[in-house]
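User: Can you write out an input/output pair for a complex, sequences first and structure second?

Assistant: Here is one pair. Inputs:
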Amino acid sequence: MAIHRITRRTFLGGAAATAATVSIVPSHVLGGPGRPTSPSDTVTYATIGNGRRADSGIGCLGARKKIAVCDVDVKHLSNRVKKGEKIDTYTDYRKLLERKDLDVVAIGTPPHWHALPCIHAAQAGKDVFCEKPMTKFIAEGRAVADAVERYGVVFQIGTFKRFGNAGKKDHVINHKILKYGLARADGVVATTGARNRTGKQALPKQEPIPESLDYDFWLGPAPYKPYNSARVHYSNRFYWDYEGGDLTNFGAHSFDPFQWSYAKDDTSPVKIRPKAPWPQHPDAVCQFSWVELTYADGLRVIVTGGGAKAPYDREKPKSMLSEKDLDEAGRKKLAELPDPPKLVTFGEAVRTRQQAGGNAESSHRVSTALNLANIAIRLGRELKYDPVAEQIVGDEEANRFVNIPMRAPWHL
Amino acid sequence: MAKKKDDKAEVAYPPEFAELFEKIPAKDVDTAVAVCKKLIAGGPATIKKLIDLVGPEFGLESGVKPKFALHGVVVYAARPGAPAERKMVAETLAAELAGGRSKEAKAFLCRQLQLCGRAEEVPALAKLLADDRLCEPATQAMLAIGGPEAAGAFRKALPSAPGKRKVTILKAAGRLADKPSAAVARKAAGDAERDVRLVAYYALGNMPDAEAVDLMVGAAGKTEGFEHQRAVAETLRLARRLGETGDAAAAKAVRGIQAAAAKAKRPHEAAAALHDLAVTQGAQAVGEVMAAMSSDDLWVRNAAARTAVTLAGALRKAHADEAKALLKKVTTATQEGAVVQQAELMLAGTI
């Protein structure tokens, strides 16, 4: 009998891989002549999207060589390739992915252009470093995580604080208590803030498209709207068509380590409660005050934006659980259960074919939580979410934000 | 009277709207909802006036507050438990698609219908499929609405759609899994244009069209580069979708990709085929997953170990012995700590 939706069972459970040390294994065991296998082996990479981030976070790859850059704005390409440098340039990432000598792609495009290059890279057998936020809408994240799992490629998101949390004893204990269900998290609250910049709501000027920019390709899966420089390159993050504002942009940096510490890498909030000015503009990201995300075990994560000066009102919460929150039997069980394995760096993961610490499933769950926050803000109402079916419960309008149709020829 | 400067002329909002516009966006939702309730109470005439005030062009300063108001009305009316309000708003928006409004204004209305539209609005949207500028926003609204009316409209428009609109509409028919469009999709898989071929593969994969298995495996085998990668992916999608109903053709699709991947020594495709063999064949895939965990290729071996853990989880209740065997093999086949730990915890019954 066929197994339905087998990829819904995330077996990594938030704890990624490895043994305590990397051993150098003979290449005939590792297989794949020509593939980098030891820490000193050079990994070839290319950058897709060369505006601001490009390869800013790629240091985690270790020994590496950039062999190509790709951008739909040729001005960005000329900015990134120094005179005399032997780096190939592309304006179409699909052509880049055809290269047999390419191991890794570093994706620094706007978020509406994260999912498809990630998926296509996996289908081409390339490992992926992807800037945060991972995706623009929830179904994209599921598609990326599934593709990464299916093709066995390595994925690392461009945020790393979880590696620090994973090395702290109190975070490890908190993680274990919640992962193994030794206690509920009612009364536990984690709080973080995000900046709250907004998009321009009026863009009356008809601007000519710069000659250097392939605007149709820049839009890609996003709806067509007349060109305006305020909507592209850096400030694209303040328009719903391309990103979710600072909530998803900066929110990812703090939400990701929370998700590890509270053992939530394989699930999502079940209740999302917003506080934000309303209605929100249909095109431009607006302000928000806070969003409260509640998980099934009672954990609450609050993301504050400060908009409209309406602070989240709460009693002094407990921020983490410890052995003191367990009875004697619970403490005994805690001691018997294994600690989570050390998180694997991207460079090690690429060379040893393991999943990296900031892998696709956990990153999808981070993006899901933050995208749900934005959906609640945009609708001005509380939402309920099913983390297994990955659907909003009882709200058809809200569910239309979960799997947004893409502009042809693009699709998930 | 409230006035807004727009380009060189001052624009005056009608008094019945000016006071309401001053209140939104509001710090608290209740204040804004009260505004939406007043606007909805004004019926279709009020909604049409709001659309007028949004204006014909994208991004007008004078259109900012009307956009907040109209979008707020749409979102509020489409909330759960308010079918009559949603119906009135959606019908009114749909009716304005036929008139003389500008294309940008109609595109904006399509985006609102993407949230509040239902099957009844499909006929009005479908008329826009014949327009180069409006085909996409109408399609996106119809895809969000879904259902047999939308699928039927795409099916009807497909045979005569030219160029980019053919790509849009064929992709849409595929997304809605419109099997009656399969014959058109099979023909499109041989089109001269790559974009047409690629959405045809997608459509056939998602419908799913069991008759297209040989065509898809063939396309994966004879194409190169990006098109090959997409053909493989869509053949595997076809297999998974066929597997959901237990169709035996699922295995044929996967095996076609598996054989080609082995011959071409593409470990990522071998891993993908093995993964989808497990998804579609369940317990019958255990032997092959076990064997793959002994592969000399680390990529295949580690990917197989992850697949094995997921497969074991799915088989635990009905095929306990096979599940146990898979998990035991995982503990020696891979050095990936998280996967080994998961297997050990499952063997111990901890999770």
